[in-house]
Amino acid sequence: MQKAYDALTRGPANHVALSPLSFLSRAALVYGRRPATTYGAVSRSWSEVADRCARVAGGLKARGLGLGDTVSVLCPNIPEMFELHYAVPLTGAVLHTINFRLEAETIAYILDHADSRLVICDTAFAGLLRQAFALMGRELPVVDIVDLAAEGFGQASYDDLLAADPADWALPEDEWQALALNYTSGTSGRPKGVVYHHRGAYLMAMGTVAGWPLPANPVYLSVVPMFHCNGWNHPWAMAIVGAHLVFTRDAVPARMFAAIAAHGVTHLGAAPVILQMLCESADAPGQPLEPKLKVFTAGAPPPPAVLEKAARLGLEVMQVYGLTETYGHVSQCLWQEDWSALSPSEQAAKQAMQGVAFPMLEGLRVVDRETGADVPMDGLTQGEIAMRGNPVMKGYYKDAAATDAAFAGGWFWSGDAAVVHPGGYVQIRDRLKDVIISGGENISSVEVEGVLYRHPAVLAAAVVARPSERWGESPCAFVELRDGHAADEAELIGFCRDHLAGFKLPKSVVFQVLPKTATGKIQKFILRDAARAMGPLG
């Protein structure tokens, strides 16, 4: 019997590489006349967007970009950034979106490490890119996305790319082919380059549609930065359902509420800090939004108090969890019917869990690393979250050792410590890495400490997370000064400001003798307890 089954062969009629590129060609056919993107007064249909993507791809090919070339993008959430999620991989090149909130030094490192062949840059960030090039000691070819508020310095513009003949629409021959390159936040040394493949992005997008779930033709407010896990893969998922994507460039509450009202927004993704900003904004409507706005939130565990406020505003929030290495969200806190009988505060506490695996993930465990066994579902016993499935990275770019360590035993190890509640819902209790998650941005305590140690008055420094009402967490620096030296909080924060991006700055500084082990290692767990005892910052 088995021979008869094995005799059936795989060919082009019954096996095609999975790629999110197929979503756009279908959207152009099925939803061609429907709105695809709106930014200010400019709206384009799905057929127009598909044509623009093909033309940009043709322009990139005409400049010699192709298979395996890294194309870097420094740009906010605007239609051009969305289009590049299709145009760049259509050439066979790899899309590399850069966090424009980073300092020039880190951007210089990322551009160099990524072997970038071209940078497509919104001219608002031209100055930042110039600084990065200066630190690199060389310049890369640049294509400007023209911003009327700033001048670029590129050899061509995005409009020049659009003037090219459209590229032929073709899927990759191999679904394992690299699609995108995203860098971690450098939580343990230098940022790592995380490589995505076409198959993973395809299944990630399909899983999002099924797990949210997304209806046909939703109106999606593009808030999740597309430099974070390619916007949690939402640029690809939204094509499946023929969504109308609305862009405001910046996540400013006044603009967001105006867009929600003007376009009838139904869905958005946002970090908890954005939800808090919306809830506390003077521009918030006096009555709950109707119909309710469906929201994905991730980037940091949302405080239950924020979830309560969001519910009162008319936001139907689902918390999701993931990492750069998993294309974004791979677990979701699905609502359970019996939660409806709970009080609002009890419901919010339930919603703060990281939940269960999305349908595109094949395995989500919480493991005792010493025994290799899953922890019991008691809500108490901690282990490390491990995952496996197609939405797990190919690996770290040019870092085989880190890749091997991350995939030990056939699982991807998250570095996050969690418990499992009865019913199988996972909840993060602590992080195994010294990472501070502030407003959805990962901050390396080691990086901040390194800057503090450069101050002449600092003998020792340790940075830990302190609760923050606005940001979830904020960096708190514990500093031991050298004998005979003086410094105050403002001076040290100002010193850090010269060397770090704004979101990485310590928000509070405590001066004391640091607790140490007999071997001189700083006991961070004591400082974490102290920071929590200080209470949240406003």
Could you give a quick summary of the protein structure above?
This protein is α/β, with parallel strands linked by helices and 538 residues long.
What does this protein look like?
The chain is α/β, with parallel strands linked by helices. The chain is 31% helix and 26% strand. Strands 2-1-11-10-12-13-14-15-16 form a nine-stranded mixed beta sheet. It has a five-stranded parallel beta sheet with strand order 4-3-5-6-7, sandwiched between helices. The chain has a four-stranded antiparallel beta sheet with strand order 17-18-20-21. The mean pLDDT is 93.
Would you state the CATH class of the largest domain?
Answer: Alpha Beta
Strand line-up across the major sheet: 2-1-11-10-12-13-14-15-16
Q: What's the structural domain tally? A: 3
Task: Kindly estimate the percentage of residues that lie in beta strands according to DSSP.
Answer: 25-35%
Q: What spatial form do the alpha-carbon principal axes imply?
A: globular
CATH architecture field of the largest domain: 3-Layer(aba) Sandwich
The parts where pLDDT drops under 50 for at least 5 residues are none
CATH topology call of the largest domain: Rossmann fold
Number-wise, the strands total 26
Structural classification: alpha/beta
Largest sheet: 9 strands, mixed
**Helical proportion, percent range:** 25-40%
Helix run count? 18
What is the CA–CA distance across the termini?
69 Å
The average pLDDT value, as a whole number, equals: 93
**Rg value:** 24 Å
